[in-house]
């Protein structure tokens, strides 16, 4: 029996002892795979380090380049590609790759919540489960998946919800698309509304992320054009609300750059037609803000950043955000 071929690309691992300075990303992709000999029964794996940094050091340009590398590996015959990294930005890496890749082959992003110095380290189990998903025919055409704790989540919905729990990754509002049981991937639901963005180069298009809060007047927003930002995502209160004086500033900015309206709640979707007071979602959309739908702030920021890099104009940006990730 010929085993499927899987490529593991590491963006950063952890050391096996802490010393005095805490854990650091020094293990290579090959090191990670070597620690899980059971993988050899599932797939023929080649592993290498693509980057070797804490996940908070990654930039969007790294992910654009990573997407090219994944396409190259699939073109060379890989049945699936697995990306390993620190968990802090897994949801952003996965969503960016989901936007940049239009592949049938499974692409899985994974990591570990318990580093190798701790009892019950989950890295080896997550790596094995991810390879099992990446080699499953049921995982084809699902977009990029995040696999940890034996669960598989669609990149468009997954969020890190706890600082330490191995069950930190959750998907709202859908739940996981499937799970691993007895070494096999079980697909429970197939996500809809997949979208991709073609980015011709690495031209920078900085997008700010602003979170509304009680009593804040938004004065920092006035500085964004001077600082070189080309777009803004607002994590508004509740269903898409800000104070009236913040709304005035956002209206001014929306004349200069795309301003996307998300919610800071992390679940649900931005309202469109419910509240009508100054600073409500109806008022803000009327002032030129673009509703983010079900996307949270970090994911809306990635989508807007990639669209700006692609050269999309305001009309095109509105059309992309208008397309739902759920069926109506």
Automatic annotation (TrEMBL):
One of the GO BP terms on file: asparagine metabolic process
L-asparaginase N-terminal domain ranges (all copies): 5-190
Gene3D superfamilies: 3.40.50.40, L-asparaginase, N-terminal domain (3.40.50.1170)
CDD domains hit by this protein: L-asparaginase_II (cd08964)
Catalytic residues in the record: 14 (o-isoaspartyl threonine intermediate)
SMART domains reported for this sequence: Asparaginase
Record bears the keyword Methyltransferase: no
Record-linked InterPro entries: AsnASE_II, Asp/glu_Ase-like_sf, Asparaginase/glutaminase-like, Asparaginase_C, L-asparaginase_C, L-asparaginase_N, L-asparaginase_N_sf
Domain named Asparaginase/glutaminase C-terminal: residues: 207-321
Keywords of the record: Hydrolase, Transferase
Family: Belongs to the asparaginase 1 family.
Protein name per its UniProtKB record: Asparaginase
Protein's organism: Rubrobacter radiotolerans (Arthrobacter radiotolerans)
High-level lineage: Bacteria, Bacillati, Actinomycetota, Rubrobacteria, Rubrobacterales
């Amino acid at each position: 029996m010929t085993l499927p071929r899987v490529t593991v690309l590491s963006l950063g691992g952890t050391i096996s002892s802490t010393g005095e300075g805490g854990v650091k990303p020094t293990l290579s992709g090959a090191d990670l795979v070597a620690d899980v000999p059971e993988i050899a029964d599932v797939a023929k794996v080649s592993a290498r380090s693509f980057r070797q940094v804490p996940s908070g050091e990654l930039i969007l340009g790294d992910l654009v380049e990573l997407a090219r590398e994944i396409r190259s590996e699939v073109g060379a015959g890989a049945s699936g590609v697995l990306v390993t990294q620190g968990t802090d930005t897994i949801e952003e890496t996965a969503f960016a790759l989901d936007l940049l890749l239009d592949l049938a082959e499974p692409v899985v992003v994974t990591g570990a919540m318990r580093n190798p110095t701790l009892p019950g380290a989950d890295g080896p189990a997550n790596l094995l489960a991810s390879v099992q998903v990446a080699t499953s025919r049921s995982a084809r055409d699902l977009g990029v998946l995040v696999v940890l704790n034996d669960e598989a989540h669609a990149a468009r919905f997954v969020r890190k919800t706890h600082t330490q729990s191995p069950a930190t990754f959750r998907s709202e509002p859908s739940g996981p698309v499937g799970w691993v049981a007895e070494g096999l991937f079980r697909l429970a639901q197939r996500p809809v509304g997949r979208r991709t963005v073609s980015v011709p180069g690495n031209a920078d298009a900085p997008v700010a992320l602003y979170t509304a809060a009680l009593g804040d007047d938004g004065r920092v927003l006035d500085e964004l054009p001077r600082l070189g930002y080309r777009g803004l995502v607002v994590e508004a209160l509740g269903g898409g609300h800000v104070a009236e004086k913040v709304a005035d500033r956002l209206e001014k900015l929306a004349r200069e750059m795309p301003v996307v309206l998300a919610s800071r709640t992390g679940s649900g979707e931005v309202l469109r037609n419910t509240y009508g007071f100054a600073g409500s979602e109806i008022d803000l959309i009327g002032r030129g803000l673009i509703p983010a739908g079900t996307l949270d702030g970090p994911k809306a920021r990635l989508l807007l950043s990639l669209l700006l890099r692609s050269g999309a104009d305001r009309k095109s940006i509105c059309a992309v955000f208008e397309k739902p990730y759920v069926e109506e």
